[in-house]
Amino acid sequence: MIEAKDINFYYGDFHALKNISMKMDKHTVTAFIGPSGCGKSTFLRLFNRMNDLIDDTRLEGQCLIDGQNIYDKSVDVSALRKRVGMVFQKPNPFPQSIFENVAYGLRVDGVRDKQLIRNKVEESLQAAALWEEVKDKLKKSAFELSGGQQQRLCIARALAISPDIILMDEPASALDPISTSKIEDLIYNLKKDYTIVIVTHNMQQAARVSDKTGFFMLGNLVEYNDTKKIFLSPEMEETQNYITGRFG
Amino acid sequence: MKRKQIEQTIAFTIFRLLGIIVVGILFWILGFIIYQGIGVINWEFLTTSPTDGMTAGGIFPAIVGTLCLVAGSAVIAFPLGILSAIYTSEYAGNGKIVRFIRVMTNNLGAIPSIIFGLFGMALFVNTLGFGDSIIAGSLTLGLLTLPLVIRTTEEALKAIPDSFRTGSLALGASKWQTISRIILPMAFPNIITGLILSIGRISGETAPILFTVAAYFLPKLPNSIFDQVMALPYHLYVIVTSGTDLEATRPIAYGTALVLILIVLVMNLLASFLRKKLRVKDK
Fold this sequence. Notes:
Chain A is of the alpha/beta class and 248 residues long. Chain A has one domain (2-243): Rossmann fold (3-Layer(aba) Sandwich). Chain A contains ten helices and ten strands. Chain A has helices spanning 40-45, 77-83, 98-108, 114-127, 131-134, 147-160, 177-190, 203-209, 227-232, 237-243; strands spanning 2-11, 14-24, 29-33, 57-65, 68-69, 84-87, 165-169, 195-199, 212-217, 220-226. In chain A, a hairpin with a 2-residue loop joins strand 9 (212-217) and strand 10. Chain A is globular. Chain B has 283 residues and is mainly alpha-helical. The longest helix of chain B is centred in the N-terminal third of the chain and has 35 residues, at 3-37. The mean pLDDT of chain B is 89. Chains A and B meet through helix 2, helix 3 and helix 6 of A and helix 7 and helix 8 of B.
């Protein structure tokens, strides 16, 4: 279970996240929606500490995963990122073979057992619904794949290190509609084994894939509830305005 | 014709002319050196020592000397330069200290090479007691080329998009794993190119070796890194300005110049060849 407690986050003087608290349950899909610059991606990146890479930022509050504060000094960030995988907006495969891309996380983790790696690569590619398309060309460069295939490869790469949680930062926004629907099907299927948090610009996408939805605006979490509730009868006027397209 | 087309035609003609002038100067110099020097180049010229008070014979010791200095300074400058570039561009962030280091690196590159020569003489030849030697010359040349190595390596690393770094870190890789497994292999073609270009620069430098290694006349090969050697650029300087019979040795001077140019040219061609070759492989 993921829990954020009284989160405030600053880029320099800019107050990017204001007093956010929320809980996300195991094996559910939670979607973050909201206009550009509302803080939803910043909030997402807190959970695998990707914001650590940005200079001059400051965090107040607690991020707990299974009760442990992941910003505690004793936390090994590499180990955290193995538990909390991430898929980025633009597919970013490494300039290596398809096989090596998926094996990368295992190799940097020190796994040497070739059979184990091979099994894990196949299993992950199957889970990412890419196996049938690439099984005969695992040695080929990942750059030869289409954009949608590359994004599923990145998902397979994240699955290979057996995370509990997968963060997705607008994973389909750079893809065509067919690739997008494949990714959405995939998210639906992954839900039974993983806890998924997805940031999306696309409200239909949030409605289709998620169990719960959080609506962000200007660094505030305006409303957080069951997806059905958010889209059918939101409590807040801002949410209503946003999902009906009156602004944003 | 309309006015703007005329303007465009005039502008393009001027640009084209200027371009032709630049290329023309290069070909003129090359052609002149080749024309004057090709006559003395033969197997004997390349493989024997100067004789008869440097008015006859070959330039073999100078070729070997220059190759020794290139190798020596590469051994010194490449690891140091590459590692410090990795530090400043990947690890150090963009704080005050790093900006200071970067400015100082650029300043180091702006110091005239004769000053490096003086410094090398003071530190390596005298204070450290290496005497006029390959090691003193290599260290001096190594320092001279360090800024170039650092800057080209930094540029090569910066050219790699951050998405590869975040992608790797997000999979639980450490910073060093990210750099060694993803970033360095990707930056490798451009790094290599920078290194080879710096070698081209080293092999042509005269001032830094003047007081630190170069011998006026030494018709034998070095036995150790503490020996003096002849070197092509200095040999050229000597037989043009202070030889025993300047008129008679003119062709030898041009021959020496031609060999030096060819070495640099081969290096540069190798650089662009390797860059293309490695690029294709990586796609």
